[in-house]
Amino acid sequence: MDAGHDEQEAVPELEDVRAMSDALVISFYDKHPMGEWQILQSLAKQGKQPSDLTPEDLFQFDQDHYGGVEAVEALAERTKIGSESLVLDLCSGLGGPARFLAWRYGCQVTAVDITPSRVEASRRLTEYVGLTDRVRFVEADATRLPLPDASFTVCLSQEAFVHIHDKGALFAECSRILAAGGVLAFTDWVATTTLAAGEGRRLRTDFAAEGLATIDDYHQALESAGFMETSHEDLSAEWARILQARLEMYESLRGETVARFGEEHYEQYVRNYAFFVRQVEAGRLGGARLIAVRP
């Protein structure tokens, strides 16, 4: 009886931790400088309004990951996406990669994200450019997907799994929704050295990086979930170059960010991002592209 009672008590505690982690991620992206409002403001400066947008108009602004559409193409090439592919974009953000894949390859894409404001914005942006017949958006936790077994041939994600602590549950879900022979391909930040306690804590609190892992951690988690042929490419040097430009971009969005979230939030975000850049330049954080196949 006592053992059973302890087990029952542990479940709510785990759910509380998960809920707190999810809330941190949602808050982080609710106040991210890159958003629907900023995209539409940038397009308006080019004389473009929502009523006359094409998918190509968005690609300069809606890829809230590193490397733009070229990075999406790199994942598509490695997973052999074509018009018959059934693609899951996991932790899809503003939906830029999902829209690009549907437009570029003619495939069907389901995009999942946990942040309601991101999902709502993604749907509107997709409606503006006429891609609702190829891209659908689902609000859900990546570790508990409301999707059928073996319903996708490819699962992609970009710089998002760093937010997910429970890699076992994450990759179990990725394996479950992929058909036999399906491919999981994702990019993410990885720890390359042991971070000082204060550095790790700051990454968790300021960037919701609860799931920061090493390359070895990822390979072990993928293999434990049953994936085979796991491989990775080091993107650290490429991302270090991108980061400084990204910091400059965020600094250039001062007016828009202050107008939406206030001066204090803007200053804090830029300080935090500068700290992040220093970790990468010092070699304590790196980037990677990982590929794994479901047997």
Structural summary, described in words:
Helix content is about 50%, strand content about 20%. It has about 300 residues and is of the alpha/beta class. The termini are far apart. The protein has a 7-stranded mixed beta sheet with strand order 3-2-1-4-5-7-6, with helices on both faces. Helix 10 (about 235-250) packs antiparallel against helix 12 and helix 11 packs across helix 12.
Write the element-wise H/E pattern from the N-terminal end onward: HHHHEHEHEEHEHHEHHHE
CATH architecture: 3-Layer(aba) Sandwich
Unreliably modeled segments:
1-11
Assembly type of the chains comes to single chain
Number of strands: 7
For the largest sheet, list the strands in their spatial order: 3-2-1-4-5-7-6
Query: Any idea how many domains?
Result: 1
Going by CATH, the homologous superfamily would be Vaccinia Virus protein VP39
The overall pLDDT, averaged over residues, is 92
CATH class membership = Alpha Beta
Terminal CA distance reads 41 Å
Helix share, percent: 40-55%
Tertiary shape: globular
Task: Give the structural class.
Answer: alpha/beta
CATH fold-level assignment: Rossmann fold
Please describe the biggest sheet, giving its number of strands, its sense, and whether it closes into a barrel: 7 strands, mixed
Number of helices: 12
Percent of residues in beta strands? 15-25%
Q: What attributes does this structure have?
A:
single chain; about 300 residues; alpha/beta; Rossmann fold; seven-stranded mixed beta sheet; about 50% helix; about 20% strand; globular; disordered N terminus
